[in-house]
Amino acid sequence: MYLGVDYYPEQWGWHLVDEDLKNIKELGCNIIRVADFAWVIFEPAENNYDFTFFDQVIEKCKEYDLKVMMCVPTATMPRWLNLKYPEIMAKDEFGHSQPFGGRRGYCYNSDIYLQKALSLTAAMAEHYKDENQIVAWQLDNEIGHEGSDMCYCENCHKKFIGYIKGKYDSIQQLNQRWGTSFWTLTYDRFEDIQLPKNAYTAQNPSLRLEWERFRNISINNFLVLMYQTLKKIIPDAVVLHDLEGGTMDKRFDPFELSRKLDDIAYNNYPVWGGLIEPLKPYEVALSLDMARGFRKDKFWITEQIIGAQGHDIIGCAVKPNQGSSWAMQAFGHGCKGMLFFRYRSFNKGAEQYCFGILDSDNKKKRKYYEVQNLFKYIKENKEAFSNPIKAKAAIVFDYDSASCFKIQRQSDSFNYVNEISKLYKQLWMRDICSDVIVESDDLSTYQLVIVPYMIMMKDSFVKRLKEYVKNGGKVVLTARTSWKDQDNNYVLDEDLPLNLTDLAGVIVDEQESLLADTYRNCIDLDNKIYKSYIFKDMLLPISAESLVKWYDCPFGNYSAITVNNYGQGKCYYLAGSFEEELVEKVFDAITDQKINKKENIENIDLGNNVTLYIDHNNFSWQLVNTTD
Questions:
Q1: Of the residues 358, 469, 607, 627, which has the fewest C-beta atoms closer than 10 A?
Q2: Which class in CATH covers the domain with range 2-150+220-385?
Q3: Has this prediction a pTM greater than 0.85?
Q4: Rounded CA gap, 561 and 572, in Å?
Q5: CB 362 within 8 A of CB 13
Q6: CB of 252 within 8 A of CB of 240?
Q7: Do domains 2-150+220-385 and 393-591 have the same CATH topology?
Q8: CATH fold label, 393-591
Q9: Domain range annotation of the chain
Q10: How far is CA 269 from CA 139, 196, 243, 246, 280, in A?
């Protein structure tokens, strides 16, 4: 198992390298991650490559028996590149180019930037192809982060039209499928299609969905071409990318990207600039389970928080043992190698307030010994973390559906990630191990599958979902399930949910979207009244049993939560965003299991009768042998 730190020797004098590597080794590390923002060190002038500095770093690593994760640093560009080729910069919808001075200011569809990125990748790979000290390669850094997943430049417009041409047989077919007769938006040529910038009113939902799909393709293609370039030179290299938090809400599909690489990493920051308090433990757990789901395998943590973070406004401080508690949680959810960010806080530049293991005083203090103790514990118990993780439940993420809710939220209170988190919490509170998967993944190994807010559903997934339930599985559907076709439109002469009325045993007869601070009442079989927010699907049972009904509903006698027997399994439909007490009660029935633990306590089954117990209230943990 690799345990280490992110180390940036180019930001310090060479006189510190020996002392730093000695301290890093004594910390318990066997690897460092380097160079993720060091393009100008490798290429100080165009096509003039210089590997001297990092050659020396690698030689020093050999002295201290430290392996290296080498990063291809394309997430920030040298000034010479920006000055000579200003057209590589991304543009906002008003045509303003990103200024030089930040990071990720480039456009993924710039042929010039891509060529320069591939040239750097090839040069680094060629130079280091026989370097055994390098055990993994990282491409770019946190792709799509900080708004860089969007660009409206001429390169994007040109390639978007090319993408559309490749998808539709004719402009007449596109007009028909998009319904451009509405608002007299009919196109005569593919070249007439505009980018969906903000207008006085909403742009066509079909156009906007294709734009979101194109953003995904643009970002994924950029990294895949880098991957192919490196692998052509070093076929046996382990090549990965480090994904940032919030990937459910980005304009690319992290599952699709991850499965085109050799491995994947996640950067674990439960608190960042501006947060009054960290994410809840179950929210962190959801992100980690999603990271494991990217490739349905264990994953790297390439940046593990240990100190407060922020470029301007700083997030709340990381308390003693809280950083190591988050790290331990990551190991429990499938982390197979960890690097803390960063070895030492940099005293200059935009991340002066992104604190590392050592602060700018360069002294070994609490955080150093906390990480040292953690690494010692992990090494002593590494066998406990070596087993594969076997989940009983799955939550299905769908990029197209997430995109649809970016395009038309329907309610100003709706947040895709928050609503999924509420459902995940019910599993986490019951210590039910869960995977986050995509619709193409196998469902048969799970006892329960939650399909949250999948507003458009492929026919192939509908078929597999029905087969899964017919064979004894349980599925939970939510409001707005399967309402749209693949063009983001309603379907004429079809009941909702599309192709699922037999599985769900209901028809969505009417619907309502609720604005902030409004709710509707519902009543359960015990005549207890609860509140529901955001969405109100009014269900007309066909074969389903009504568990909860809408109360005092002026539209009629409609159900709010139902269950339908289908083959040997069951399908639940939750037609709103209900208050937690009711959701907990429903999940008691769904899981046949009540919550019997305190808030913020986590029990992770590691296999072989070993459970990792974490108390997130006081940041403590222990491994428990369940046979004792």
A1: 627
A2: alpha beta
A3: yes
A4: 7
A5: no
A6: no
A7: no
A8: Rossmann fold (3.40.50)
A9: 2-150+220-385, 393-591
A10: 20, 33, 11, 10, 12
